[in-house]
């Protein structure tokens, strides 16, 4: 068979560090042919490119995307599971499963991610404090190894290779399809409580004592506010709405699911973008004020509660040609003082955009490279052109390392091999498993080379 490649310039969602690779969209049956046709720069699978940094890039090598159709996914209603191709997006899958009374076990802040990308990054969502990350819900998956052989792995079947693949950033093999459990739902709405918190201390207190009563919890924080308003925030906690909570009129369409696309940012915006100190502080002030001080029990649709940013296509272009970094780290419980100090450093630097999220994590899973750990995770979007960004992040990296924290590989675009080695103490165990299934270093990525993962 003739393998047909195109040369493409790829970036992550943050649009920093582009690199070129030979790319092709392949069907499950053709993957092994395309793998053989690689040079010493190796091969990498790519989903929808929603990781922010260079995780789904492979400069000078091959990058493959897997075709996938949600209509071919097999829903087992009795078992509450679905088996889907790794190239299927959560966007397409939700359109099939929500009307049938199911929701994905974990969703990130966008539904435009693939099932393969969800496993490879072991993504977490607003329910991590009670239900863990995506890998916790995977029953089995099919993996093609570097030699072209196909293996079934799962928590009870070759568990070490399974857990090395969960969070393994595509470096153990090609995930072909995945069986995972779903959440049964009675309606496609969420019942959401809103609380405005005047600063980070009030927020930490509130989350520490109330999060466990809700399946979902996430906070937005204003990282431009300082002094007594440091880390002022809005906390939204929610649960899937029960049928009995709806009027009979609404109950008739309880599982209606119609995500809306409002607009797209055009391909050309001014090179300096629209996100700056002035626009961000104006946005933060309006955003904070528009929320009620405390509101119990409002209803939100799945798209507006879980994926509000998806309503605007290509919103990452708003940062202009230089793109932006999403800096995400986790700190263990007991390190709240350090969390506050980091928030203060970012607030004083006046570099943060309005996209800032604080989440309280629950228990880790057995995957050596899984990001979530019991504690706090802060996510901050910062324009890449922000003055002094390099030295600011260098200082914060040190604080994260000294506090026993770690950085999220799916978001990273800047940190060092040392920070990853310290943050992931089981990295050598993972490398050993990775090498045992890929002795010739077939799987490669810009991220893996930059952070010395392989
Ligand atoms: C707006 C937004 C919000 C987000 N919110 C969250 C969040 O709340 N929580 C969270 O955890 N993440 C979040 N993310 C990050 C996103 O969930 C992850 O980066 C996810 O992995 C992206 O999936 P993808 O299909 O786009 O994969 P890509 O970004 O294309 O690839 C990610 C990794 O998966 C590997 N991969 C992809 N497919 C396969 C396959 N078939 N076999 C083997 N490896 C494969 C790639 O090699 C790469 O290492 C968010 C991203 C955006 C843009």
How are the strands of the largest sheet arranged?
16-12-14-13-19-20-18-21
Give the radius of gyration.
21 Å
CATH architecture of the largest domain: 3-Layer(aba) Sandwich
Bound molecules: flavin-adenine dinucleotide
Tally of helical runs: 14
List low-confidence stretches. none
CA(first)-CA(last) distance: 30 Å
* Main pleated sheet: 8 strands, antiparallel
Q: What's the overall average pLDDT, rounded?
A: 94
- CATH class category of the largest domain: Alpha Beta
User: CATH topology of the largest domain, what is it called?
Assistant: Vanillyl-alcohol Oxidase, Chain A, domain 3
Content of β-strand: 25-35%
Helix content: 25-40%
Structural class: alpha+beta
Rough outline: globular
Blueprint of the fold:
Blueprint: E1 6-10, E2 19-26, H1 31-36, E3 43-46, E4 62-66, E5 74-76, E6 81-85, H2 90-97, E7 102-103, H3 115-120, H4 128-131, E8 138-144, E9 150-153, H5 159-165, E10 174-181, E11 183-184, E12 189-197, H6 200-210, E13 216-221, E14 233-240, H7 248-251, E15 263-264, H8 277-290, E16 294-301, H9 302-306, E17 312-313, E18 324-332, H10 336-349, E19 356-361, E20 375-383, H11 389-402, E21 406-407, H12 417-423, H13 427-437, H14 446-450
What does this protein look like?
The structure is a single chain. This protein has helices spanning 31-36, 90-97, 115-120, 128-131, 159-165, 200-210, 248-251, 277-290, 302-306, 336-349, 389-402, 417-423, 427-437, 446-450, and strands spanning 6-10, 19-26, 43-46, 62-66, 74-76, 81-85, 102-103, 138-144, 150-153, 174-181, 183-184, 189-197, 216-221, 233-240, 263-264, 294-301, 312-313, 324-332, 356-361, 375-383, 406-407. It is globular, with a radius of gyration of 21 Å. The two termini are 30 Å apart. α10 runs antiparallel to α11 (389-402). The model has no long low-confidence stretch (mean pLDDT 94). It has 454 residues and is α+β, with helices and mostly antiparallel strands. The strands form 5 sheets. An 8-stranded antiparallel beta sheet has the order 16-12-14-13-19-20-18-21. It has a 5-stranded antiparallel beta sheet with strand order 5-6-10-8-9. The chain has a 4-stranded mixed beta sheet with strand order 1-2-4-3. It is built from 14 helices and 21 strands. The protein has 2 domains: 70-185, Uridine Diphospho-n-acetylenolpyruvylglucosamine Reductase, domain 3 (2-Layer Sandwich); 189-422, Vanillyl-alcohol Oxidase, Chain A, domain 3, CATH 3.40.462. The structure holds flavin-adenine dinucleotide (FAD).
